[in-house]
Design a protein that fits this description.
- There is one protein chain.
- The protein is mainly alpha-helical.
- It has one domain (about 5-134).
- Helix content is about 65%, strand content about 0%.
- It has six helices and no strands.
- Helix 4 packs across helix 5 (about 100-125).
- The relative contact order is 0.17.
Amino acid sequence: MSVPRRRFWLDLGALVYFVAVTVWLTWPLTSRLTTALSGSPDALLNFWALGWNYHVLPTAPLSYFDANIFAPRPDTLAYSEHLFAVALVAWPLYALSGNLILAYNGAMGFSPSLSRYLGCIRLTSGPGKILCAE
């Protein structure tokens, strides 16, 4: 087997492993990705912030920080997390499905497996070292 082909299968195996670990660790939630949020106290706030991003950015991006959470106060989004980077990462999932719960769970649930996979590939020269560290 050639080196690039072997590397591809090792990378794919590492990605599958990290996704499987994430599914196992978040099991009741992964069976309801489109209908349920986690039991974390911050889940509702973060869900609202992600929804605010998808609401205001296409319609009125200059009033981004004038969120409706503490209306009529101005710049209320600055009081909390704005989740702008998370919104960018989860936007393709939201655009394809139109389901905000799925976009939120996809971003929050599978970002650990994606970051572990990218760290595995980028920081080590292959998946073997990081898999042993799991």
